[in-house]
Design brief:
single chain; three-stranded mixed sheet; alpha/beta; nine-stranded mixed sheet; 29 helices
Length: about 850
């Protein structure tokens, strides 16, 4: 036996097993299932790196960390690309987590661009026009989110702190002047800090806030969006071929490959100019709001009005520019960034900054307008009301962004863009309202929320725009209703026995049987995330619509917010003011909770739900919103593709198994598409196999983004969504019915990743899943076989994995993690290799170093 081990160890490994983790940022040691001392970093840094399993003594067969003979096991760790846990200092982790909270609406809103019907080279003129219109609408919605951030900052810094507290003296917990006793003790400082200069100083805050977003976005592009040589070379070659065909006068043939199989797809994002346009729009909005205040006070005639209208024109031009700038390219033939977009963005920013600078000069000069009679920002209601109304209209239009014929197999019946935008707008408004509510407590003490409601009723004292109070209150009520609806999902007790029998699951008479059943029922409930999200989005749409109607009625009738609904309130026997105080306090709780998330994330260094949501949205490249999180896929996908390409090109007999968990499966199929499009050796793809486990490719991402990883792209059977009030939520998906199947396999046995992603017959594929996995599903079909017409298709890709880890004592039930600790993983690995010589050497195999 020892001679066999020595011989196997001395031989050069011909198989690379490359493991890729999911969103929970599994450590390299855990991913390789070895102690930290038995792994070594091959290359990379704190953001992303390749690690090698190099145990000093190979564990026995079926034990943790065992490596079959002839296999080189590596792990790709990419969690540092987006996670703040990798930051070494508490301050940097705090900034990163705070940015995650503030940028969450941006990241969700950016997803609307990728859930619409994406364009393709083979599209007709009408289809391409529809795609361009929806892309413009998605970018305009991203612009609305930036304006919402800006007007919130204007409300807090200019309206509340500068005008109402520092100048107007309306805040009991704030000094009547800016620096209180310090100013009184320094007469020179009192003369220096005139009301106009205080206003100018705090008017810089909104512009500075958006400027920091621009800076963060630029740093992220420089740090994360790494371009790989072989990827960009392949894209350049494809573009040259397109241009040569055009020069000869012959029309270029449409590229019918999948979106993820386009050369240079991951390096074709151009959002730098869009960021400048957003900055220009934010600056113009700040200038317009402050200069209009001067016009309303009649403190200075002529010039403030000119500045205000100039800023409004620049704001409108910025909105148009944000809609038309080309930021999303799919094929290599698309433009990488025309010169006019740079000139337009830079020109708008220069003009906006010039107007803002003139406004500051007007405020700081000794002849500045008199602001002593102010009681708050004039016209503060209209800008946020118009911004949120436009956002709501764009969000509702997302219902029609996908063609009717492609809706059945998509999430929320094709309304995915609308759901993403509604959730983004809800989170943005909720965050803005919570920040304003917290600010009132800081400046007016614990009576701040009640003072806000009193100010809304009397139009005097401490007050904020009614739209934030109304929306915050309605959203709080909608959240409570959502919770009630979600509780009803628990009414039918989840029974999964029938589906377990379909997959030939043999439940052992084990002491862990009761725990296993509980975990299965819990997983079945968590699987209802799609209908739960749809319920929340629908209730939020109703809440936002009612709140906007309420506020618009008050604006048009010139009535205070509580007075508009007083008639309805009397019928219901409630006081609107009391309800608003209660909901405003609930917004304060939301603000404290967000701050608590940041604090706990810093102290405990745990990912948490916020970070997981962040990781999922980070997969999508920034196209509609330049201030969203950096896209780790633009770095990770080329990393993996290049690693596979270099390994396989070194020797024609080498093979590779790409083993990916959870979200890593989406990255893995993206890397395979890129590899097929950019490899130097056309035989490389034929020597790769795919092993996924705990993945959501078919049930979540395939329904959310059909053009990226949908059934036609991967060759999977279209998935039906879960039914919340059924005992088995996935019983409908498990039916053998006649669905529209765009890419059925050429052979009766489904064994390969097919579809439009890969050329030829694709690659061998095995997917592991289990009923106790709350985030793992079958990747091809919801049953073991399908019958269409006269053909029966056997699902040989999806395999049921054991649910009990027996590598430790006592055994434990495993759910979403630790797939590689059950026998099904090693069996699948050896089957994908297809060589009996590997299986024969397992018992005496050794680690390949």
């Amino acid at each position: 036996m020892s001679d066999l081990v020595d011989a196997a160890a001395a031989s050069e490994p011909r198989v690379l097993e490359l493991r890729v983790h999911g969103v929970n940022n599994t450590t390299p040691a855990a991913l390789l299932d070895l102690p930290q001392d038995d792994i070594q970093c091959l290359r990379g840094d704190a953001k992303a790196a390749f690690w090698l399993a190099a145990p000093r003594q190979n564990p026995p067969n079926r034990a943790r960390g065992h490596i079959p003979a002839g296999i080189r096991r590596e792990a790709y760790s990419w969690g540092g690309l987006v996670r703040s846990e990798t930051a070494k200092h508490t301050a940097s982790r705090s900034i990163a987590l705070a940015f995650q909270v503030l940028a969450l609406p941006f990241s969700i809103g950016n997803g609307a661009m990728w859930t619409r019907r994406l364009p393709h080279d083979s599209d007709t003129g009408a289809t391409r026009l529809r795609a361009n219109i929806t892309a413009a609408a998605a970018r305009l919605f991203g612009f609305v989110l930036t304006l919402l951030f800006t007007t919130t900052a204007v409300t807090v810094a200019v309206d509340l702190i500068a005008l109402q507290c520092s100048i107007g003296g309306e805040c009991s917990a704030w000094p009547s002047d800016l620096l209180g006793s310090a100013v009184a003790s320094m007469p020179g400082l009192a003369a220096l800090l005139t009301p106009g200069r205080v206003l100018a100083l705090l008017a810089i805050v909104p512009v500075l806030g958006v400027g920091l977003l621009v800076l963060f976005a630029r740093i992220a592009r420089m740090r994360y969006d790494t371009l790989h040589t072989h990827e960009t070379a392949a894209g350049a070659k494809a573009r040259e071929a397109m241009e040569a065909a055009k020069a000869k006068g012959s029309p270029a043939q449409p590229d019918r490959r999948a979106v993820l199989a386009q050369p240079a797809f991951w390096s074709n994002r151009t959002t730098a100019h869009l960021a400048l346009v957003h900055f220009a729009g934010a600056t113009a909005l700040t200038t317009a709001q402050v200069s209009w205040h001067l016009v309303a006070l009649k403190a200075s005639a002529g010039f403030p009005a000119i500045l205000c209208w100039a800023a409004v024109v620049l704001l409108v031009l910025s909105a148009v520019a944000a809609a038309i700038l080309p930021t999303m390219t799919i094929t290599p033939s698309a433009p990488e960034g025309p010169r006019w977009s740079a000139w337009l963005a830079q020109g708008l920013l220069v003009l906006a900054m010039l107007c803002f600078a003139l406004l500051l000069v007007l405020l700081v000069l000794p002849s500045a307008p008199d602001l002593s009679s102010t009681d708050g920002l004039a016209g503060d209601e209209l800008p946020p009301l118009l911004i949120i109304t436009l956002g709501g209209v764009l969000a509702l239009s997302g219902v029609a962004w996908r063609p009717r014929g492609f809706r059945a197999g998509t999430a929320w019946l094709g309304s995915t863009p609308a759901v993403f935008m509604l959730l983004s707008l809800t989170v943005g408004v909720l965050t803005s309202s919570a920040v304003i509510a917290l600010t009132t407590i800081v400046v007016a003490g614990w009576g701040g929320p009640a003072a806000l409601v009193a100010g809304a009723a009397t139009r005097s004292g401490l007050h904020a725009p009614d739209v934030f109070l109304a929306l915050g209150g309605m959203i709080a009520v909608a959240l409570l209703l959502s919770l009630v609806v979600l509780v009803t999902f628990l009414i039918p007790r989840k029974l999964l026995a029938d589906r377990a029998k379909t997959w030939l699951v043999q439940d052992e008479d084990d002491p862990l049987r009761a725990r296993l059943e509980r975990d299965r029922r819990r997983a079945a409930f968590i699987h209802l995330i799609e209908p739960a999200t749809g319920t929340i989005a629908t209730l939020m749409a109703v809440a936002i619509g009612l709140a906007l109607t309420w506020v618009w009625a008050g604006v048009l009738w010139q009535a205070p917010l509580p007075g508009v609904a007083s008639g309805t309130a009397r019928v219901l026997g409630i006081r609107v003011a009391d309800i608003l105080v209660l909901t405003t306090w609930s917004l304060t709780v939301v603000g404290v909770a967000l701050a608590g998330i940041v604090a706990l994330g810093v102290l405990l260094r745990k990912p948490g739900l916020l970070a997981i949501v962040w990781d999922v949205t980070c997969y999508l490249p920034r196209t509609a919103q330049p201030f969203g999180p950096p896209c780790y896929a633009e770095h990770a996908v080329p990393d993996i593709a290049q690693e596979l390409d270099e390994w396989l090109c070194e020797h024609p007999e080498r093979r590779a198994v790409l083993a990916a968990h959870s979200m890593g499966a989406v990255i893995a199929v993206s890397a395979l598409g890129l590899l097929a499009a950019t490899t130097r050796d056309p035989t490389v793809v034929d020597r790769v196999a795919l092993l996924t486990f705990g993945s959501q490719l078919r049930t979540y991402f395939g329904r959310l983004m059909p053009e990226l990883v949908g059934p036609a792209v991967l060759g999977t059977y279209p998935a039906r969504g879960p039914r919340p009030w059924k005992r088995d939520p996935w019983s409908t998906d498990a039916l053998d019915d006649d669905r529209a199947w765009d890419a059925p396999p050429p052979q009766p046995s489904m064994t390969r990743l097919g579809g439009a992603l890969l050329p030829g017959d694709g690659v061998p594929w095995i997917n592991l899943w289990r009923l106790s996995d709350y985030l793992g599903f079958p990747a091809v079909a919801g049953r073991t076989s399908l019958r269409r017409a006269e053909t029966t298709y056997e699902n040989a890709i999806d395999r049921y994995a054991q649910e009990i880890d027996r590598t430790i004592d006592p055994p434990v039930v495993v759910t979403h993690n630790d797939y590689f600790r059950v026998p099904a993983y090693q069996d699948a690995l050896l089957e994908l290799l297809g060589g009996p010589e590997i299986a024969e050497r397992v018992d005496g195999g050794s680690a390949a170093r």
